[in-house]
Amino acid sequence: MPTVSMTVNGKSVTGEVEGRTLLVQFLRENLHLTGTHVGCDTSQCGACVVHVDGASVKSCTIFALQADGASVTTIEGLAAPDGTLHPMQAAFREHHGLQCGFCTPGMVMSAVDLARRDPDLTERSVREGLEGNICRCTGYHNIVKAVLAGAEAMKVTAEAAE
Amino acid sequence: MANPNGIGAAVRRREDFRFLTGQGTYTDDIDRPGQTYAYILRSPHAHARIRGIDLSGVSDAPGVVAIYTGQDMAADGVKSLPCGWLIHSRDGSPMKEPAHMPLAVDKVRHVGDSVAVVIARTRGQAQDAAERIVVDYEELPAVIDMNATLAPGATSVHDDVPGNLCYDWHLGDEAAVDAAFAKAAHVTKLDLVNQRLVPNAMEPRVAIGEYDRATGEHTLYTTSQNPHVIRLLMGAFVLGIPEHKLRVVAPDVGGGFGSKIFHYAEEAIVTWASRRAGVPVKWTSDRSEAFLTDAHGRDHLTHAELALDADGTFLGLRVRTTANMGAYLSTFSTSIPTYLYATLLAGQYRTPAIYAEVKAVFTTTTPVDAYRGAGRPEACYVIERLVDNAARELGIDKAEIRRRNFIPADAFPYATPVALTYDTGRFDICLDEALKMIDYDGFPARRAEAKARGKLRGIGLSSYIEACGIAPSNVAGALGARAGLYESAEVRFHPTGSVTVFTGSHSHGQSHETTFAQIVADKFGIPIETVEIVHGDTAKVPFGMGSYGSRSLAVGGSAIVKAIDKVVNKAKKIAAHMLEAAETDIEFSDGRFTVAGTDKSLGIGDIALSAYVPHNFPLDELEPGLDEQAFYDPKNFTYPNGTQVCEVEIDPDTGTTRIVNFVAADDFGRVINPMVVEGQVHGGIVQGIGQALFEHAVYDPESGQLLTGSYMDYCMPRADDLPSLQVTYHEEAPCTHNPLGVKGCGEAGTIGGAAAVMNAVVDALAEFGVGHIDMPATPEKVWRVIQAGKMPMAAE
Q1: CB neighbours of B253 closer than 8 A, spacing ≥ 6?
Q2: Residue B403 CB: number of other CB atoms within 10 A?
Q3: Under a CB-based contact definition with an 8 Å cutoff, are residues B570 and B251 in contact?
Q4: Smallest Cα distance from B792 to chain A, Å
Q5: In Å, how far is B43's CA from the nearest CA of chain A?
Q6: Torsion sign over Cα A127, A131, A132, A134
């Protein structure tokens, strides 16, 4: 079986995979990073969204081998090492943007990427930006609130870092 | 002093940290040592006789551990998956209850029916090997259409149920209804399709079976809303495993909406196969399998008639419904179109005479069972569509016709003509509040403004009621439930003052770990951080009936309160002993036990420690320990209710419906956590909107193939399809018969939602002569209706 190497959440990892192994399978089954979820088999639901070289990607849509050499961030890599939540994670908690939690990892990873790409999000652009992430619990109302608040908090954090 | 994290506080959720950091433990996240993977070969046909299964060469495929068919399971004594409710037809005969074997034995009866299971070292190997299986099918005609399935000469889905009728049931006083119609000034009639839906919890189902040869104990990890019920059904009825040798664990579960109540074939298959093959066996559904095998929802055909006098007073309601059971009877299936549907046909109104007939039929489709609301959205849709149309036909304002017919606040308890007694309600408050929120009076101006832009604007109301807190066991039993539907709780103080609560309710998004802890912290006067809620494991929790029918708080929460009361009573005895006072003189408040009229007191933590390390308890009167169990059986259903108002704008050029505003004013009794309640309502409403505008499980009538078998074909509501929602609630009519005064909020949004949207859509299209349009109101359907309406003769 071919070998694949990548950086996941800042750590170098290597594993043997089949050619058909999807990135999400590699993360869940080889690395036991089970925070990334599989909710469909047609790249529609977005529960599996991770960041590959900084951009959100549905990890059920690429083979593990395609991510060879890439830097991957999963939901497990988003909070600070001391457990402090990323501003987007904190906003989801504050605004009750999750119920069963299954879509949440993908939703949060998509939201972080959305906020990075568009510093001036509106309710409409959040709704359009999350079109590829399905949630069955929340009706999206609180997710939209959380993403707008999380994006604001990310701006403050970024300014503070400058 | 109010507990800052007690009842009524918008406490942020304790579940969230693990879910937000990827540390939840969903069933598919569990791997057992030596685990193998099951792939289930499924029928590609809607209906076929299995003439033979050729397994040659399959076991030679890489990684294969075992292959089993339905014959193997049957030969080993495995029995049919049971149905939990026995319905009797109007002639007194019991419903037809054909067998549902976990793996098909003689025939397959829907696309996706399970035929064989391959167990291999990896998931891919199991799937690869299954491709070598050759099944010799003799194809039989698909039976899809509900009217066709009852037609003379229709192909039988089950050889032992000729005619495909499961039951022919009725409720209410037919003669009284006939009399009401005879004197009516006006009759509003509708033919309604309540289309089939797929629940689509985001987490697909998973089951892992593990057998311990040393102890003879089976463990099933499963995506379930009620692990104890699965243990009972699977252990006692299907596999013959006694409870003490069968543990069922439902860990974090990624949404259910009803679809994870039922005992599914795959649970029995992996449990049985793990013993047979001697290895843990894991099955993970993919979404395509979920579409074919998760129980579907709704699927009613209804003719309904409302008789009114000239003033718009409701005189009588007549409803005739055919309900699709699918190919087999799922666990709760038979109760949904009967006792969770027809019993709700009074709605919020004083309609004096109601009569309902329900025929349940078999078809070669995926089984149909409870989906969020379960019977009550169907009932609400019937009533509220009739009421809006009646108002239009009689020229009465649609809010006014409701107000005129509401059961007034002073009429409770109110016995409806369809078997229920509502304990309390203030329907007027919800209606007034909802109308204010949406600025009902300003609608004509908004409609005119939209018209000037070339858009069609409509407004629709839905005043729903539901029977929740399922169920008073004696009532449920009288209605055919084969089990009582109480709930259990155990409240255990630990020696150093922290508390673990074991609840038979199950949380799969409902936030019990937070809200139940609020109740416990509030009642004991202790910090919420010292309370832990445990659920979802039959090895930990004494018993449980699980979570569905918005019952967790009303029934499960009440059981917790009952156990808390027992703990307090026990603690009073201990306090009396320690304080050398009479037990009757001990008062408890804010976490302290005080001798009345003195400053002598002890904190509950001191009592707990003493309870576990006593030196001098009078042992014949006072046992050590502070750990109490309670079973709570509700005295009645609870009756959450409210009014939802939806305003839509339709683009006549494209037929696209946009929801411009949606408001809900609800009565859930007392509210434990307003943030959580609002979240439940939001999600519920969007499932109602989903049914009204987007979702429809469609079968090809000839081949019986599911045409909407993926998220590419089945339209799930997405963020950009939806508006923000305005929701509020009142607490003026708390439940009168449970200790928390709570009613339940999980299904409300869905129960009222679809009717509110469809009433708005029909209102917007009324100028084209449209009296009804079936769900989902897709752009194509709406556009066609508009086009037809533009031609003068086409209008009805």
Answers
A1: A100, B26, B27, B203, B223, B224, B225, B260, B506, B507, B508, B509, B536
A2: 16
A3: no
A4: 39
A5: 19
A6: positive
What band does B483 get if pLDDT is binned at 50, 70 and 90?
Answer: confident
Indicate yes or no: CB of A75 within 8 angstroms of CB of B749: no
Mind listing the pLDDT tens digit for each residue in B148-189? 999 999 999 999 999 999 999 999 999 999 999 999 999 999
> What mean pLDDT do residues B489-513 have?
97
pLDDT band for B795, please (50, 70, 90 cuts).
very low
**Chain B residues touching A93 at Cβ < 8 A:** 12-13, 16-17, 20
End-to-end CA distance of chain A: 46
pLDDT of B484 over the 90 cut = no
Share of chain B above pLDDT 90, in %: 96
Helices B558-579, B512-524: axis angle to 10 degrees equals: 30
Exposed, middle or buried: residue B516 (CB in 10 Å: 0-12, 13-18, 19+)?
A: buried
Model confidence at B793: pLDDT above 80: no
Chain-chain contact of A18 with B124 (C-beta, under 8 angstroms): yes
Domains of chain A, residue spans: 3-77, 87-161
Whether residue A97 is predicted with pLDDT greater than 70 in this model: the reply is yes
CA B597 – CA B790 distance, rounded (Å): 82
Q: Which of B380, B460, B384, B373 is nearest to B197 (CA)?
A: B373
Max Cα-Cα span within chain A = 47
With H, G, I as helix, E, B as strand and everything else as coil, classify residue B295.
coil
A35/B24 CB distance under 8 A: yes
Q: Chain B partners of A39 at a C-beta cutoff of 8 Å?
A: 202-204, 287
Task: Indicate if ipTM > 0.95.
Answer: yes
Contacts A20 to B, Cβ<8 Å: 124
Q: What percent of chain B has pLDDT over 70?
A: 99
Instruction: Match domain A87-161 to its CATH number in 3.40.630.30, 1.20.1440.230, 1.10.10.10, 1.10.150.120.
Output: 1.10.150.120
Model confidence at B794: pLDDT above 50: no
Higher pLDDT: B479 or B510? It is B510
Question: How large is the average pLDDT for residues A61-89?
Answer: 97
Res. B558: pLDDT tops 50: yes
Half-sphere exposure of B747 (CA within 13 A, CB side): 35
Measure B119 CA to nearest chain A CA, in Å: 18
Per-residue pLDDT tens digits for B300-315: 999 999 999 999 999 9
The residue among B380, B376, B385, B375 whose CA lies nearest residue B306 is B385
Q: Does A101 touch chain B (CB under 8 A)?
A: yes
Cβ-Cβ contacts under 8 Å for B447 (sequence gap 6 or more): B457, B458, B459
Q: Which of B25, B286, B510 sits opposite A41 (nearest CB)?
A: B286
Partner-chain contact B684 A139, CB within 8 Å: yes
What are the two backbone dihedrals, phi and then psi, of residue B655, each rounded to the nearest 5 degrees?
Answer: 75, 5
Q: Is residue B796 over pLDDT 60?
A: no
Q: Do A93 and B24 touch (CB under 8 A)?
A: no
CB-based contact B700:B145 (threshold 8 Å): no
Please tell me the distance from the alpha carbon of residue B525 to that of residue B147, in angstroms, as a whole number: 60
Q: Does CATH number 3.40.50.2300 belong to domain A3-77?
A: no
User: Who contacts B453 (Cβ-Cβ below 8 Å, separation ≥6)?
Assistant: none
